[in-house]
Amino acid sequence: MEQNDILDSQFAEIKPRRRNLLPWWIKVFTWLYLLLGAMIPIILILGLAKYKFNISLFGLETNDPLSALGLFLVFIILLKGISAFGLWFEKDWAIIVAQIDAILSIATCVCMMIYPLLVSDANLKFRLELILLIPYLLKINSIKLSW
Questions:
Q1: What mean pLDDT, rounded, does the chain reach?
Q2: Domain total for the chain?
Q3: Is 12 domain-assigned?
Q4: 44: region left, alpha or beta (phi > 0 left; psi from -120 to 50 alpha)
Q5: At what angle do helices 24-38 and 68-88 cross, to 10 degrees?
Q6: Which of 69, 60, 142 is nearest to 99 (CA)?
Q7: In this structure, are residues 108 and 60 in contact, taking their beta carbons and an 8 Å threshold?
Q8: Which residue range forms the structural domain that includes residue 110?
Q9: Which of 50, 52, 118, 129 shows the greatest Cβ crowding within 10 Å of its Cβ?
């Protein structure tokens, strides 16, 4: 007859923290995008009140948060905020949203590198964000199974 110990049942449900799978630099950006994501309602309310202010990300820049470009930037920041929320609070869906966020961000950066070449004889401008976005995507992909 097998003897069950009370402690076995208590410790059987303890899982390692998913947050510990994230390196320190992803944790720093997680907090940054949590704060920026929390500002989205304020940005939209100020936009409805006709306030103009600068929004810039990945080489895209606008002064009107309710323009098509402004709404696209708000969407990207909101997606990053949702991704950061999911990663920090260890949600099951966090890795999928983080992958979508990373792929969309990389695609936006690459488009902003190529666009000036298509519309004029400008030089190629390397987007420094790629230095963090590509390792971010690789790290997210590597911890997907452990998550």
A1: 88
A2: 1
A3: no
A4: alpha
A5: 130
A6: 142
A7: yes
A8: 22-142
A9: 129
The token pair that represents 20 in the structure block: 């510990």
On whether residue 116 sits in a domain, the answer given is: yes
**pLDDT value at 24 more than 80:** yes
Maximum pairwise Cα distance, the chain: 81
Tens digit of each residue's pLDDT (9 = 90 or more) over 89-140: 999 999 999 999 999 999 999 998 888 777 776 777 788 899 999 999 999 9
Burial readout 99-137 (b: 16 or more C-beta within 10 A, e: otherwise): bebbebbbebbeebbeeeeeeeeeeeeebebbeebeebb
Contact 70, 55 (CB under 8 A): yes
- Helix (H) or strand (E) holding 128, with range, is none
Look at the pTM and tell me if it is higher than 0.85. no
Contact criterion met (CB below 8 Å) for 43 and 36: no
96 touches 87 (CB < 8 A): no
Q: Quick one: which of 49, 60, 46, 53 has its CA closest to 115?
A: 60
